[in-house]
Design brief:
Layout lengths: L5 E2 L8 H14 L7 H14 L3 E5 L2 H11 L5 E4 L6 H8 L3 E4 L11 H7 L4 E5 L10 H11 L2 E5 L7 E2 L2 E2 L6 E5 L12 E5 L2 H10 L4 E3 L2 E2 L10 H32 L5 E3 L6 E2 L5 E5 L1 H4 L3 H10 L2 E2 L24 H9 E4 L7 H14 L2 H18 L1
Parallel strand pairs: 1-16, 3-4, 3-5, 5-6, 6-9
Antiparallel strand pairs: 2-10, 7-8, 7-14, 9-10, 11-12, 13-15, 15-17
Helix pairs in contact: 1-8, 2-8, 3-4, 3-7, 8-12
Bound molecules: ligand T4K.
């Protein structure tokens, strides 16, 4: 039963026969972690592949976020979005930083740059936006504000692997960007993540921070943590790079098929690729406007389950609704984020998703659509009938 379920994602793995020789090499060498040769090679290849200056690998995206905040010594208040995976805000909490939520814009569900200025106080030290679903934030306006107020910018780019803005990597914006290579992401190393930075000095600091702060056998230069990626995952990651472009082609095909099938359903909205962006097709969120569609987002979620199709409501509830954060003054009045979180459902999307699944999703949604929207042809038919009579 379990194996017939269509889940929101299905991880892409490299061919096993290509991985085995790398495993044999690792077995022979007995070098398993702590900046081994595959780790070093993967960092180099990733920097070239992504078009960024420096990459520091991590064991996951959450620890990368936490270390990024440590690296820049961020304190006080940080402006962030309530519409993300909890790890974004948890990374602030673990650093003793107060999150200040600002509402999102409805077009791409990113932090609304127009609302940031009003949330800046003397305690504000940084902005932590998320490129939600891989669609870039208003990076130019955010940098503008940061420059004017002397704030740092750390992008949670967990969804934005491979995304380009105006022809270059979106990861080059801000002081630091973090990536997640979790199994559910467009590019995975099972678990994993990275920090992207602009200069070697910062990379060295980040590398100390992920390895206990150890500089050499007798020197610890910072209160670091253990957040290193191991050799098995680094070798797996090197193989994954070869298959990334074809995976994106598969994702694009599925996305375009969904868009084509859903384009005429009233009350169902989806996102088009933003201008000036090379997109990675990481998620396919649709937004159900109950008053137009006639049924709620949760009705859609349940109806799809009856067909063995398991969408996910990323991101519902909002982070600001969870018990840790709901008492914060900024957790109130996030109207757009609230509305979007009640409308959104991410439909299954992965490179080898069968076309028939898309057809089923489309026909389920068409079948659920408000009766009135299906009545129009009936009215036209009766007019034609009257004319004939
Ligand atoms: N910032 C943002 C904006 C993020 O979205 C994330 C992670 C992070 C930071 C933190 O990065 P990491 O520390 O995770 O590297 C999943 C992922 O666990 C999480 O990484 C991801 N965001 C989040 C959006 O999605 P869940 O709770 O939805 O995972 P789960 O286990 O329910 O899996 C989702 C679907 O994927 C299921 O339908 C099953 C399927 N699946 C999952 C796994 C693990 C598979 O088919 N195979 C698998 O191996 O959080």
């Amino acid at each position: 039963m379990e194996k017939h379920k269509i889940l929101v994602t299905r991880p892409q793995l490299p061919p096993l026969n290509e991985f085995i020789p790398l495993l044999e090499d690792i077995w022979d060498s007995r070098w398993l972690t702590n900046n081994g040769k595959y780790h070093q090679e993967f960092e180099k290849q990733l920097a070239v592949f992504l078009g960024v200056p420096y990459v520091s690998l991590f064991s996951n995206g959450t620890l990368a976020l936490m270390a990024a905040l440590q690296c820049l010594k961020i304190k006080g208040e940080v402006i962030t979005t309530p519409f993300s995976f909890v790890a974004t805000t948890h990374s602030l909490w673990w650093n003793g930083i107060k999150p200040v939520f600002v509402d999102i814009e409805a077009d791409y569900c990113n932090l609304d740059a127009k609302l940031i200025e009003a949330a800046i106080t003397p305690e504000t030290t940084a902005i932590l936006p998320v490129h939600v679903y891989g669609n870039p934030c208003d990076v130019d306006e955010i940098q503008n504000l940061a420059d004017r107020y002397g704030l740092r910018v750390i992008y949670d780019a967990a969804h934005a692997f491979g995304v380009k803005y105006k022809g270059s990597s979106v990861l080059n914006y801000g002081d630091l960007s973090i990536l997640s290579f979790h199994a559910t992401k467009v590019f995975n190393t099972i678990e994993g993540g990275a920090i992207i930075c602009h200069d070697l000095k910062t990379k060295k600091r980040i590398d100390y921070l992920k390895n206990f702060g150890i500089a050499d056998e007798t020197t610890v230069v910072a209160p670091g943590i253990n957040a290193k990626m191991n050799e098995l995952q680094a070798a797996y990651g090197i193989l994954q790079l070869k298959y990334f472009d074809s995976a994106i082609d598969g994702r694009q095909h599925i996305t375009e098929k969904y868009r084509d099938g859903l384009k005429d359903i009233d009350g169902v909205r989806y996102l088009e690729n933003p201008v000036d962006v090379d997109y990675n097709y990481s998620y396919f969120p649709v937004f159900i406007d109950e008053s137009e569609f006639g049924r709620s987002r949760d009705d859609v979620y349940e109806e799809l389950k009856k067909h063995n199709i398991y969408g996910r409501r990323y991101f519902y509830p909002l982070i600001s609704e969870f018990s840790t954060y709901r008492g914060l003054p900024s957790a109130k009045g996030l109207d757009i984020a609230y509305e979007i979180s009640r409308q959104v459902i991410c439909l299954p999307l992965y490179p080898d998703l069968p076309d028939e699944v898309v057809d089923t999703v489309v026909s389920v949604l068409k079948g659920m659509a408000r009766v009135e929207s299906r009545e129009i042809p009936v009215k036209i038919l009766s007019q034609i009938k009257r004319k004939i009579e």
